[in-house]
Each structure stands twice: as C-alpha cells, then as structure tokens.
Specification:
The complex is a heterodimer of chains A (465) and B (112).
Chain A lengths: L38 H17 L4 H22 L5 H23 L2 H11 L10 H15 L6 H11 L5 H8 L3 H15 L4 H4 L10 H16 L6 H19 L7 H20 L19 H14 L7 H14 L8 H14 L3 H15 L1 H10 L4 H4 L2 H13 L3 H14 L3 H12 L24
Chain B lengths: L3 E8 L9 H17 L4 E7 L4 E5 L2 E5 L8 E9 L2 H9 L11 E5 L4
Antiparallel strand pairs in B: 1-5, 1-6, 2-5, 3-4
Classes of the chains: A mainly alpha (465), B alpha+beta (112).
C-alpha cells in the first residue's frame, strides 16, 4: 500500500468478512458494483500471465507478489475513489511498477535480475501499452503450458495452474482439492523450485514450440474439470466454478493453433456434456443423484448443444482419442430421451473402444454395467467374471458396488448384500455412502457413479454414471 | 442532517494478512455497501498512513512516531453524526471492524 496517497483506511486488513472458510462464493459477489463476477481472480491470472512472459518464468514469485500488491492497492483506492475507467489497465500499471521496483531491489543482491529490470524499464514509459486480446490469450496459454511442464511433479501441476491461472489462494485450493494447506504449499513449492531454474531462452520460445506438452495440458484440464465434477465438495457453487474454470481454459486452448486439435475439441465436448448435467446431478443437500433419478428437463440445453458442436469438430480428423470415446459416451447419455431409452449398445461399444485406447479394468467394468442395462444383469456379471481384477480394484468401493448391484438385480440377494456392505465400508464420501445405502434399501438403483479421482487408477476418469 | 464531526483514528500495525483475489472481491463489495449505506455520514474517507514519519518538537525534528506499534495511528477518516452513539454505529458497521484486533479511536471535533 505504500506510496499510494489515495488509500482508504485499513481496508486491506480484513482477511475474511464473512467468517466462513471460503468467502469467495458469498452472495456479496453479485453486488460488487461495477465489477464482473470473479474480476479480481481473473485479473490475477491475466496479469500474472502477461508479466511472467515479460520478465521471465524464473521471476514468477516476484510477479505474483506484484500482482497481489496491485490488487490490494486497487481494493483500497477504488473504494475511496471509485473504479477507474479502465480497471484492467490501472491494475496492469500498478503491478508493472511494483514489479520493476522489486526487480531493482533484488538486482542489488543478484546481478542476474538486473537484465529483467532493465528490460521492463524500457517499456515502463508506457506501461499501459494496449494489450490485444489475442496477446493476452497467448500469454495465458503460455502460462498453462508452463504449469504443465513434464519436469514439474505431476501433483504440482494442477495446484500451480489453480494458483497462477485461476487466482485461487492456497487455502482455497486446499478446500477445492480436499488437501491440507500444508500439502498445497508443499506442491506449490516443488513447482516453484522448478520454475526458478527455467532459463531465459525459454521465455522467447514461440508458443508453438511448447506443443510437446499438450498431452500434459489435457490431463491437467481434465483433472481440473473432474475436481469440480466429481468432487466430494458439497458446495454447488464451488463445484460449478471449478468446471467453469476448466471450460474457460480449454476454450482458450481451442483458439490457438498450439492447442486446436481434435483431442482438445473432444475434451471440451466432454466437459460441456457433463457440465450440462452438473446441477441436475446434485440434490439440494449436495448429495448425488443417479442418472436415472435426474430430472432431464434440468439439463442445460445450451451446453448440450455446445457439446455437440465441439464433438462434431472433434470428429473432423482421423484421430480417435480417449476423450473422443468419453465425449461419445457422455453424448449418448445427454441425448437419450430417457434412461430406459438410452442406447446401451452404443455405450458398451464406446467403453470397449475406450478400453483399447486407455486400458483399465474400470473401463471394462463400466462396459459390463452398460451390457447389464442392455442384456440383463447376468450378461453384465459374466463380463465382470472375465475381468482379472488387480489388487487395488478389489479394495475399490465401486467394484464392490457394481458387483453388489448386478447380483441384486439378478436376484442373488446374499452376494448382493455382501458386496454392497463392503462397498459401504470403503466409500470415500458421505454422498457416496448415502447413495449406497439408498441402493441397499431400494430396488431402483441401476448405474454407478463415476470413477473417482482417488482411484488408484491414477488418471481420474469421468465415467458414464 | 448530522452536524457533529468525528475524527476516527485506526490504531495498530498493518496486518500481514494476504487476502485472496476472491476475498478481495468480497471485501470490495462489502466496503462499497457500507460506504453507500453511510454516504451521508462519511465526510472524508481519509487515508492509510505510512508507518514512519517525522516528529517536530521545540528542540528539532526527529523520525517518529515513538509509540508502541499497536498504538501507532495507521489511518483516519472523518465522519458526521448526531452524537457518539451515531458515530459508533457508523464505525461499528464498517467491514474492517470484524477483524480481530481492530481498534478505532473516535474523537468528536470541537466546533469552532
């Protein structure tokens, strides 16, 4: 706040007005007069991306501090004096000046920073030089590819993206990923340690040169979406927000040649199809509703249409990836007029294709579920018997839940009870336990909830429900 | 129309707390709401004060202030109210007052 005479009083000293563990979702957002939803968060991501590209990835810590300071300055100044005409340019200018100061300060101690400070000073005469939308987009994408460096430990990539691109604090990330804040800090620390080693020549590489990281980018975006879609988090707003962030970043990716591939299109289609059903999937209490229990009229038609458009684009090439298979499955569910009229044969085929591309007993299991809907529980059970379950699958609640359900439908009540009780004992969340209890109690249940991120299968999956 | 003026002084060291961007947006909304509600009372939003300054005495100029950190005036504003009760109500409603350790001294300004 120093050096800003217009500062209001002590505004910045309030950590948390609502006193809740996560204030980002309060109803107050809607009356933040004059600012769009998530303005501060979006600006954080935008400014970090632009300035990081300007001064180099290795200075990302200083960049983040400068952006944080600029937002804090804005908070006090804007309350006192009103929002400036171009708030984005205002923030950029303040962040930019703070960053120059920080680089200069550090330059005294570390020679190497001097170059970055001087470089930035050249542009300092006109720090609010206009930024074209596509430049900002490219800087955001570059940041995404920075986060998805294979050299960064896998666990750290998503956390880094949430911090830098989405503007979440470590506490907010911890809440969203069901991690301790200490764990989030540890993951971020590992990522930062790597970024400090990134050499200056990296920053001048064209975006296209980073395309080898595209697969890692896809995985991170997929994880980000799943963290919203499959989360044990019961807050609907938080879940929606995570899915929206994934869709926002994936959409950016489709807009640049570096990411505009059929695989990206399929991933975005998948997100839209699932996103269309997200709210209908949750009951009022944050519990999960089975596909057959969902009110299909609540599915978001616009988003389903977007899903269909992207899926069509995805089909333009020769490639058929796991995202194509998964988007195809999601599309079958989305466009089925009712649960009973679902084309289970198609879905079973798509699971078979998915299993060929990304072999996993979970895909085989989901296929058995579709077959059971199509040809009856005994046919499903026969398929399950053919799977040689690896040890992790035997202790996995979904495996037990599926076996229990199919046995129950086949009238093998003894086995059914045994499997469902075992599933209950290892189900990871209350929502899933409730679901299983309902299944125990009712003869209505049919399909399984998706594979979860804590599956030992490593790559979390969006299953067909 | 309130006629008494009150000087409100914020005491204490600035917090090291770093709110997240989402929290900042909420704070922004809350402060704007407060400012709107009491716009008739808030005569001057005042300012934060930088932590160090100069102290002048008959014997010269020194760096200051010398008070303990928690007593240093960190910012001020001027409000109008009918009486202390009214002034307290304005300050009490300020979102910042929920912060642990928040301390505001309110002094009626003597009319000349």
């Amino acid at each position: 706040m120093r050096g800003n005479p217009g500062d209001g009083v002590r505004l910045t000293d309030i950590p948390n007005l609502s006193g809740s563990s996560d204030p980002s979702t309060g109803p107050q957002d809607s009356f933040a007069a004059g600012l769009v939803d998530h303005f501060f968060r979006r600006e954080y991501g935008r400014l970090v991306a632009i300035l990081t590209h300007k001064v180099g990835v290795r200075h990302i810590d200083l960049v983040e501090d400068a952006v944080q300071t600029a937002l804090m300055t804005a908070l006090t100044s804007w309350v006192a004096k009103g929002i400036p005409e171009d708030p984005g340019a205002w923030l950029y200018r303040v962040a930019h000046n703070h960053l120059i100061g920080a680089l200069r300060n550090n330059a005294g101690r570390l020679r190497i920073l001097e170059a970055a400070a001087n470089e930035l000073t050249v542009a300092a005469d006109n720090p609010d030089s206009p930024r074209f939308d596509d430049e900002v987009r490219d800087d955001l994408l570059r940041m995404l590819f920075v986060c998805c460096d294979e050299a960064i430990p896998r666990d750290s990539r998503l956390v880094l993206a949430l911090k830098t691109l989405c503007g979440f604090s470590t506490a907010e990330i911890a809440l969203r990923l069901f991690l301790s804040e200490a764990n989030v800090l540890k993951r971020l620390g590992r990522a930062r340690a790597h970024l400090r080693e990134v050499t200056p020549d990296f920053d001048s590489l064209p975006l296209q040169a980073l395309q080898s990281r595209l697969a890692s980018v896809h995985v991170v975006l997929y994880l980000l979406f799943n963290e919203g879609y499959l989360s044990a988090q019961s807050d609907r707003t938080i879940r929606r927000e995570m899915c929206d962030e994934a869709i926002r970043l994936t959409t950016l990716l489709t807009e640049h040649p570096v990411g505009a591939t059929p695989e990206t299109f399929a991933l975005l289609a998948l997100m839209h199809f699932h996103g269309a059903r997200l709210m209908a999937r949750l009951d009022g209490m944050g519990g999960l509703l089975l596909l057959e229990e969902q009110d299909r009229s609540l599915w978001n038609q616009d988003q389903m249409r977007l899903g269909a458009e992207w899926l069509q684009k995805a089909a333009s090439g020769e490639t058929f990836t796991r995202f194509h298979a998964e988007a195809g499955i999601a599309a079958e569910h989305a466009f089925a007029p009712s649960f009973a009229q679902t084309r289970w044969e198609e879905i079973a085929d798509l699971y078979a294709m998915l299993d060929r591309i990304a072999p996993s007993p979970l895909n085989a299991m989901n296929r058995a579920v579709a077959i059971a809907e199509w040809q009856g529980p005994e046919a499903g059970l026969a398929l399950l018997k053919a799977i040689e379950p690896p040890p992790w699958l035997l202790g996995y609640y979904l495996w037990d839940a599926v076996l229990g359900e199919l046995h129950r439908r086949a009238g093998h009540n003894e086995e059914a009870r045994r499997y469902i009780e075992r599933a209950l004992a290892s189900a990871p969340t209350d929502a899933e336990r409730d679901l299983l209890r309902r299944r125990l109690a009712s003869l209505e249940f049919a399909l399984i909830p998706p594979g979860r991120r804590d599956s030992p299968d490593k790559v979390p999956r969006i299953a067909s429900e | 129309m309130s006629t008494q003026k009150y000087l409100c002084m914020y005491r204490g060291a600035p917090s090291q707390n770093k709110p997240s961007p989402a929290q900042m947006q909420e704070m922004f909304a809350a402060f704007n709401g407060w400012k709107e509600k009491f716009k008739a009372n808030i005569l001057d939003m005042g300012s934060k004060l930088k932590p160090s300054g100069k102290v002048l005495t008959a014997s010269g100029v020194t760096d200051g202030p010398f008070a303990e950190a928690k007593e240093i005036v960190a910012g001020f504003m001027i409000i109008a109210a009918d009486d202390y009760e009214g002034a307290v109500a304005v300050v009490k409603a300020m979102p910042g007052m929920q912060m642990p350790g928040a301390c505001v001294e309110i002094r009626e300004m003597a009319s000349v």
